Amino acid sequence: MENMENKAHDIVINYIEEHLDKSDNPTEFSVYTVWKCKALQNWKFLISSSLYDGMYYELTYNGDKKEWYLDAYKKFENRCISEVNHD
């Protein structure tokens, strides 16, 4: 399990490094797993980084095909929606 998580982290680190602005000074950052799940031979990871860019990454490992899929998302907003009591 740890090996799969390390591989997922490596994929995200490589993706981030490919997409950092080349005109900026090199930026140190770390990545961490927010959530993970294994179902049969498949894995799903939600990963974020220490960068202040609002990005998070979803990695899926297809165990049948031995393939990784990466989705990169940008968080645009975080709202609190209060429940209204209609008694």
> What percent of the residues sit in helical stretches (DSSP H or I)?
10-25%
Strand content: 35-45%
What is the averaged pLDDT score? 92
| Secondary structure category | alpha+beta
Strand count, sense and closure of the main sheet?
4 strands, antiparallel
- How do the strands of the widest beta sheet line up side by side? 1-2-3-4
Q: Secondary-structure element sequence?
A: HEEEE
Structural shape: flat
Radius of gyration: 16 Å
Low-confidence stretches: none
Counting DSSP E segments of at least 2 residues, the number of strands comes to 4
Task: Report the span from N to C terminus.
Answer: 48 Å
How many helical elements?
1
Write up what this structure looks like.
The model has no long low-confidence stretch (mean pLDDT 92). The chain has one helix at residues 2-19, and strands at residues 31-39, 42-49, 55-62, 67-74. A hairpin with a 5-residue loop joins β2 (42-49) and β3 (55-62). With 87 residues, the chain is an alpha+beta fold. Strands 1-2-3-4 form a four-stranded antiparallel beta sheet, with helices on one face.
Summarize the topology.
Elements: H1 2-19, E1 31-39, E2 42-49, E3 55-62, E4 67-74
Antiparallel strand pairs: 1-2, 2-3, 3-4
Descriptive terms for the model:
87 residues; single chain; four-stranded antiparallel sheet; flat; 4 strands; alpha+beta
